[in-house]
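Obj.: predict assembly geometry.
Materials: sequence records (below).
Method: joint structure prediction, all chains together.
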Amino acid sequence: MMQAGPSHVAHSDCQYAQSVGGSVEMLQLAQGTALDERLHKPPSWVDAADPIQAFMGRYSAVIAPGWRPLAERTLRTLVLASANCPERRRALSQLCVFGMSASLSFVVCTHADQTVEGILRKARVKSQGICEECGRLARLRQLGEEETATLCPRCAAPALLHHDIWVLLQSLRFLSAVNAPVVLSQIPPLLRPSFVEAALLQADGWDDTESARMTPTHFLVWAEGWRQMAEHISVPIRYLQRSADKRKSGNSGLI
Ligand SMILES: [Zn+2]
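Observations (raw structure tokens):
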């Protein structure tokens, strides 16, 4: 876990020195790359034989599959831009990924120059039009009250349907307690065609879609069908977990 801040580099090295039984004095003696050598600290991804593979391997669980090609292109650009520039390489060695964002968010935890910042900003903006699941054209979508994801229509459909079923199931207790006919306006939008179709089977006088309604008993049977359906809908849970993770970790998403 990395922490942001102007003193981050020294602070994280200090933590590392202590974690391997060293001391702050050792840290003061061993600055820069010498520190890595004396404490046998693993080399930065920038110094790896294959830096792109090293970084992607480390963050494979954090970077969404649809954004991986963009992430690899961005890393390649960063490596090229940092050749023969020790200061920039040092900044990139602190590169990490913000894992709870609806865009590809690289973060440099120490000072980075405008070139590096520009490359990272470009990747973030570009990812906002790329489906995080499959890489197709996409846009930001609201999947619930707090959940957002950048998805194409095809990848968004299961998640949106899953959410509407969840809303339906949440309303069951209230609608059962009211014990009155359930009307169309009480049904989540994606389930309304099914509601109208099922209500038609027991039509008791309504003659237009907006008047569709069900008895409480019929409604519970219909809702149970959707509950069972939800068990078979495959929804990537990464983005559905984001809001829960944010609440748990107090919005600390640096990994
Ligand atoms: Zn997609």
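Conclusions so far: The pocket of zinc ion is lined by residues 131, 133-134, 136, 151-152, 154-155 (CB under 6 Å).
To do: check interface contacts against the pulldown list.
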